[in-house]
Amino acid sequence: MAALKAALLALAVAGAPAAEGHLLEGARLFRAEVYGAALVEFRVAGALGAQEALWYSAAALLKLGRSEEAVEAFAEAAAVAPGARDSLLDYYRAQACHALRLYLCADGLLASVVEQGGPRIAGHARAMRAAIASELAPQRLPAAIDWYLARGKELSARRPLLAAAYLEEAAGLGQRLASAYRRQEALDALAKLRSAPPPGKR
Amino acid sequence: MRVPGHPSELARRAVAPAVASLVLLLPRPVPAQEPVSPATRTALHEALELNAPPPPRAPSLPDARTPPSPPVPATPLPPAAVEQAKGAAASQGAKDGRQNQVEAANRVAQEAAGASAHGANANSDDAAREVRAGQAKMNGGKGHGNGPNPPGPPPNPGNSNH
How many angstroms separate the CA atoms of A49 and A99, rounded? Predict the structure, then answer.
């Protein structure tokens, strides 16, 4: 009977250490720059219950050059596992935002990296912030806002997390202009996006 | 050897349905949130720190002439391969009690296939590689460690969106 109990207990907890094993294997592969295989390990860990694996999946997606998916995965990770966030993950997330020209998104994340990151990463973050600051000249913002709004609206139905990132960028840039150029339009689109029922899992 | 009518056989028959019911009543462990140990978190942190990307090229605000990210041609997963892998996974999982891992790998492979078909910004080679890796896990039944992972891609130096 004791053996039966032990077997049942083993069955009940089966999978608990498995997720951790996949995270460790993902870390090893990520370290070895085998990002595709690392992504698989992180996704399996996430499917086994390690929700913070989403952060690492997002980082792997960034390294694979799949920045749109990375921005989506980071947004999802921040929603489901906010406690796992740290300055290094913020740096990766900022890189994903930067790759999609979401410079305000990147700048906001980099601000905390400068404060809390290690010396090397904080140095990178400082350089990125300086470059972004010099790019955001007011006279260029309206055309950029038009582009972000169009992109956000185009993606609203298919990829709401990505659409929200573009719409937030448009609203944030609009706030920098005295005219608040199209800011309200971006905020309205965001509100509409957030009130819509979530699409089925892809 | 089982002898019909023998007390041990009668006992086995009496207990089996109860055990089956117990097993059915046990909660599924897969969706439970699992705390990650400090050692694992340190390993992850070190891996990310080691390969943290350098600052990217200078930012450039988009304007009317800037195209959206170009879609990447998708590499769909052959449906027969999915079904074959699922069958192998089911029998393997039933044999050794690693059903949870098999199911997880199965889902990952299917999601990778979905991402490949989705395609908007997916790197089709990477998606196909994910699918193969997921299938290898399913067929080989290796959870982690020395599983038959495919050779990895070279580091992607740039970003496909620009």
Answer: 30
Q: Give the A window 37-76 contacts with B, CB below 8 Å.
A: 37, 39-41, 43-44, 47-52, 56, 59, 62-69
The 10s digit of each residue's pLDDT in B10-29 is 666 665 655 555 444 554 44
Q: Exposed, middle or buried by CB within 10 Å (0-12, 13-18, 19+), for A102?
A: buried
Interface of B with A in 101-130 (CB under 8 A): 101, 103-105, 107-108, 111-112, 114-115, 118, 120-123, 126, 129-130
Tokens of B27: 């909660």
Amino acid at B135: Q
pLDDT score, position B128:
57
Closest CA to A90 of A101, A105, A69, A68: A105
A86 SS3 class: coil
Q: Which residues of B touch A42 (CB under 8 A)?
A: none
Q: Could you give the CA distance from residue B37 to residue B127 in angstroms, rounded to a whole number?
A: 29
Cβ neighbours of A195 (radius 10 Å):
7
Identify the residue whose tokens are 């078909």.
B117
Half-sphere exposure (Cβ direction) of A75: Cα atoms closer than 13 Å: 19
For chain B, the distance separating the N- and C-terminal CA atoms, rounded to the nearest angstrom, is: 71
Tokens matching residue A14: 């089966």
Are B61 and A140 in contact (CB < 8 Å)? yes
For residue A102, CA distances in Å to A121, A132, A147, A166, B70 come to: 19, 10, 11, 7, 17
Tokens 């913002």 locate to A141
The reported pTM is 0.70
- As for the ipTM of the complex, it is 0.87
Residue spans of chain B under pLDDT 50: 22-24, 27-31, 72-96, 116-124, 138, 140-162
CA angle, A200 then A97 then A170, to 5°: 80
H, E, C per residue of B54-107: CCCCCCCCCCCCCCCCCCCCCCCCCHHHHHHHHHHHHHHHHHHCCHHHHHHHHH
